[in-house]
Amino acid sequence: MERRGFSAKEQKLVDLLVDSGMKKNIAKTLVYLKKRKETTSVELEGATALRQPEVSIAMQELRKRKWVTKRDIKKEGKGRPVHSYKLAISFSKVIDNVVKDRKQEIGKIEKSIKDLENFKEQ
To answer: Strands 82-87 and 68-73, how do they pair?
Structure first.
């Protein structure tokens, strides 16, 4: 079982988010952000065992959903700025959004099943 930096309870949460249809890199990133006030992409990479491109893709998706905010930290001298991230909404609201999305998917599936069953009678 892949755990690096996660307690058993946190890993269970990652697994539940993945089971709900969330990509693993996004789920790991969210669970790590849940326990940190603010973190850098380098810290995320180390704690989640994700590579830099995976963290970057996860952050793009989370920012698009407006669940995470990004702040650039100026470094001394030359080089690219360090990016710092934190949750923009409470983790509880993130879960509410995930549940709402899943319920909408269930509704669509149930409608499709009902529509398909109507074709049996024709």
So the answer is: antiparallel
For residues 40, 46, 52 and 56, what is the CA-based torsion angle, rounded to 10 degrees?
A: -40
61 pLDDT exceeds 50?
A: yes
As for how many domains the chain has, the answer is 1
Pair of tokens at residue 73 = 């930290």
Helix (H/G/I), strand (E/B), else coil: 99? helix
CB-CB contact of 22 with 61 (8 Å): no
d(CA 103, CA 105): 5
Q: Which domain holds residue 17?
A: 8-89
Instruction: Note whether residue 105 is domain-resident.
Output: no
Contact in structure between 55 and 48 (CB atoms under 8 Å): yes
pTM over 0.70: yes
Q: Assign residue 30 the CATH number of its domain.
A: 1.10.10.10
Q: Residue 119 domain-assigned?
A: no
For residue range 27-54, what is the model confidence (pLDDT) as tens digits? Answer: 999 999 999 989 998 899 999 999 999 9
Residues whose CB falls within 8 Å of the CB of residue 54, separated by 6 or more in sequence, listed in order: 25
